[in-house]
Design brief:
This protein is an alpha+beta fold. It is built from 7 helices and 15 strands.
């Protein structure tokens, strides 16, 4: 027990002496901590993202929708669909059969037409789409779908074809070719042959489609079927009667419908207002009414045809005026009124036949 106490006293004295002899912390040398080396990441040349070009919006044709058009869509059948197919085919949008059925092929043609004219692409032929198709004079042709591959020219083919090396003639073994003695001649500078130059092939200028003119058919007259005399306008102010001539616009035939009806003895009721000019008549077993307006230049435009007070879908709404005579396309007259016209080259006349009334 005394030994244990003695050991504890000894250890306490040793600890106290070590604490007293410890150096002052302020006197210790400063420890310089090394500055960490910054981590440098190698820069890589990352290409800037390429902006995807936005498609140029197709300009929209400014035209007021005609509310008289009936909306047609997938599943509809009839003459309205067939007339629309004919018009779409005329401008290169429809390539199928003119069957009067609104199927997927017709829908795709309508969508392509709507896109090319800045319309809402929904495949439904509504008032605005049909108004642009039938009444606008700014209808755009369908774009070409195929680009012809470049043809290989003869000069290009010759340049790309490698020339085979000339064959070297080797003398047979054991023979010696005779040595020909050539007299020394004065050295002359080699003459360089000029490199053949290929003349560029002239590029043909693009052929522009001539714009058709609305002109009378020279030497042609208009006659009703069974009549011997040609149609003419009555004399004015004691002058002579003037013969009526058919007109042509490109390959389309134009006829003076109202003058033909008057010559056939059909009574025509005409009216003129600030909004429109109208005329009504009975043909066959139906009552027809024609209506049109005038543009700022005084030319007739916006032709509308009603049969028994029902608006008709027309293959074309072009209307022309020559002096005081109104001309309509023969295809329009035949499709809506049943009036047929045949060009007789032998008689130099257009023979017109009117439909008969149903008894």
């Amino acid at each position: 027990m005394d030994l244990l106490k003695t050991i504890l006293v000894y250890m306490s004295m040793v600890f106290a002496a070590s604490v007293q002899n410890a150096p002052d912390p302020a006197a210790l040398p400063a420890y310089n901590q090394p500055t960490p080396t910054p981590y440098v990441q190698e820069a890589t040349n990352t290409p800037a993202p390429t902006a995807t070009p936005k498609p140029t919006p197709v300009p929209t044709i400014d035209i007021t929708p005609n509310p008289e058009y009936k909306t047609i869509r997938v599943g509809d059948n009839g003459e309205d669909v067939r007339a629309m197919q004919e018009k779409l085919a005329q401008y290169g949008y429809y390539e199928g059969e003119l069957d009067g059925r609104f199927g997927n092929q017709t829908r795709r043609a309508v969508e392509a037409f709507q896109y090319q004219h800045g319309l809402s692409v929904d495949g439904i032929a509504g008032e605005r789409t049909l108004t642009v198709l039938y009444e606008s004079g700014e209808v755009r042709m369908a774009p070409s779908k195929e680009t012809p591959a470049p043809q290989e020219t003869a000069s290009l083919r010759a340049a790309l074809t490698p020339t085979p090396p000339a064959e070297e003639t080797v003398a047979p073994a054991g023979t010696f070719a005779p040595v020909e003695t050539v007299a020394p001649t004065q050295a002359t500078a080699p003459t360089e042959s000029p490199a053949p130059t290929s003349s560029p092939t002239p590029t043909a200028a693009p052929t522009q489609t001539p714009v058709p003119e609305f002109l009378p058919m020279e030497g042609m007259s208009i006659r009703l079927e069974g009549a011997s005399e040609a149609l003419s306008l009555p004399a004015a102010d004691g002058g002579e009667a003037r013969a009526l001539a058919p007109y042509a616009y490109g390959e389309s035939l134009y006829l003076p419908l109202l003058e033909i009806l008057k010559a056939a003895g059909i009574n025509i009721i005409s009216s003129s207002t600030v909004e429109a000019d109208e005329c009504a008549f009975v043909l066959g077993d139906a009552i027809y009414r024609l209506s049109y307006t005038e543009d700022q230049a005084g030319n007739p435009t916006g032709l509308k045809v009603f049969k028994n007070n029902q608006p008709q879908v027309m293959p074309g709404r072009d209307i022309r005026r020559v002096e005081d005579v109104i001309y309509l396309p023969a295809e329009c007259v035949e499709g809506l009124l049943g009036v047929t016209a045949v060009v007789d080259e032998g008689q130099k006349a257009v023979i017109v036949t009117l439909p008969q009334a149903v008894e």
